[in-house]
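Section 3.1: Structural characterization of target chains.
Under the original work plan, the team committed to producing a structural model for every single-chain target entering the pipeline before any wet-lab resources were allocated. The record below documents one such target. The sequence was received from the expression subgroup and is listed exactly as submitted; it comprises 191 residues.
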Amino acid sequence: VAVTGPPGSGKSTLLHILGGVDRPTGGKVLMDGKDVYAQNEEQLAIFRRRQVGLIYQFYNLIPVLNVTENITLPVLMDGQKVNQNRLAELMTTLKLTGRENHLPNQLSGQQQRVSIGRALMNAPAVVLADEPTGNLDSKSSREIVELLKVSNEKYGQTLLVITHDESIALQADRILSIEDGKITRDEVIRR
């Protein structure tokens, strides 16, 4: 699903509410038939770590952690063992092999790939991406969109991408447009 709309329309707020980051002022957020916000804070934190992968435009990488540590952080915070096969697959798919021990400031265009790896490491049911290509050149943008599409298809994850780029939106199966906090368009492109 692609979500489009002008700046300030509520796209990022929607993403944060869906991801369990910001609490809605009314209504319910149902995921897998359960009200996300009926959970206590500890349950909500577990939900975010296990069920949601968040990809931010500005990466939010931990500067003192290397690539591997940044990618595996959600797993380690959850007290789980790192799935080394999944890590290796992500490193290969994201073209980060050979950069495992690099710190974020030692990476040029790969920081967004690390952010995506971190979001996908726990194999979440839902991946929420807020302008994931906003700071990238056109070649890198195409590669990131392809990586997200592969993840969506290969792992059966729901993918919601906020974008201002019409060419990215048109690759989605469904487009939602938001203005002033309301959905103004809901169009199925592909089934």
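The CA atoms of residues 4 and 132 lie 13 Å apart.
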